[in-house]
Each structure stands twice: as C-alpha cells, then as structure tokens.
Amino acid sequence: MALSGDLGSGKTVFTKGIALGLGVKDDITSPTFVVIKQYKIDISQISPVSADGQAEVGNLKSQSCGRGPCFLFHIDCYRITDVKDAESIGLREYLDIKDNILIIEWAENIESLLPKSTKFIRFENLGQNKRRITATRD
After folding, report:
1. How far apart are CA 34 and CA 75, in angstroms?
2. Cβ contacts of 30 within 8 Å, gap of 6 or more
3. What per-residue confidence (pLDDT) applies to 47?
4. 3-state DSSP call for residue 120?
5. CA separation for the pair 6, 22 (Å, rounded)
6. CA 1, 91, 39: angle at the middle one, nearest 5?
7. How confident is the model at residue 19, as a pLDDT?
C-alpha cells in the first residue's frame, strides 16, 4: 500500500489503525529516520470476514500467514530522493517479499519501483482536524 500526502496529513495514524486491525501489539511510530520498521502480525487477532463484508483482512489469515510468521513492514521514503537511493538501501528486496504487508509513506518518491498492483492512498490536510483520503488504482 502506497501512501502519499503532506507532513501531518495522517499517513502514520492511518498505518497505526491498520496495524491495530492486524493484531500488531507494538507502538507504531514513523520510520522517517530508520526508513523501515518491521512488526509481527498476530494472526490470532484477525477476525474472519463478516457477512456484511467488513473486516476484509480476515482472508489474510488463510492466504498469507498460514505458512509462517507474517509481518507488517512500515517504510518511509521521505528522505529517499530517487530510485538509486531506494536500491542502495535494499528497498527492492522488501518489495519482493511475499506473504507480508508493506505500507510505504512518501511512496511517490519510489513510484517507478512499485508493482502495478500497488494500492495508492492520498491524504490531504483540510485543516481543523479534517482530512480528505482518496484511494486510487485498483
């Protein structure tokens, strides 16, 4: 999942919500200075999909994490200025990891590296604790 938007627009808070829904017990903080943080997903905390279609992360339990540990990788590309920078820190290898979830903040900085199946979410700060969140590419 690729997140973009200005500083303070809600990208890390959004990631915290996803992590909570995936049973991550660690405190989620911005990985701006370390670039990549890894969190173990507790698949026992993921509920099955309900009849009304909510909690769609439920199929993650059977499809992705059934063969071993599953992780959430929280990546921040704010300080990554181009593809060469991304490759120098091994980011391409993270993009190739299967059966895990990647959330990339400032993904526009490495867009040419991202798989075509990447989901993009744009955050806009509208002031007064209001945000516009737009999902693109399906």
Report:
1. 9
2. 12, 76, 105
3. 57
4. strand
5. 26
6. 60
7. 92
3-state secondary structure of 93: helix
User: Token pair of 60, please?
Assistant: 């993650």
Question: CA-CA distance, 73 to 41, in Å (whole number)?
Answer: 10
Q: Say if residues 137 and 119 touch (Cβ distance below 8 Å).
A: yes
Task: Name the residue ranges covered by the structural domains of the chain.
Answer: 2-136
Query: Does domain 2-136 fall into CATH 3.40.50.300?
Result: yes
For residue 103, with 0-12 CB atoms within 10 Å meaning exposed, 13-18 middle and 19 or more buried, which class applies? buried
The residues pairing with 107 across neighbouring beta strands, listed in sequence order, are none
Q: What is the model's pTM?
A: 0.78
Q: What is the Cα–Cα distance from 99 to 57, expressed in whole angstroms? A: 13
pLDDT tens, 51-96?
Answer: 444 444 444 444 455 555 688 999 999 988 888 888 888 888 888 7
Dist CA 103 CA 74 (whole Å): 5
In what helix (H) or strand (E) does residue 12 lie, and over which residues does it extend?
Answer: helix 11-21
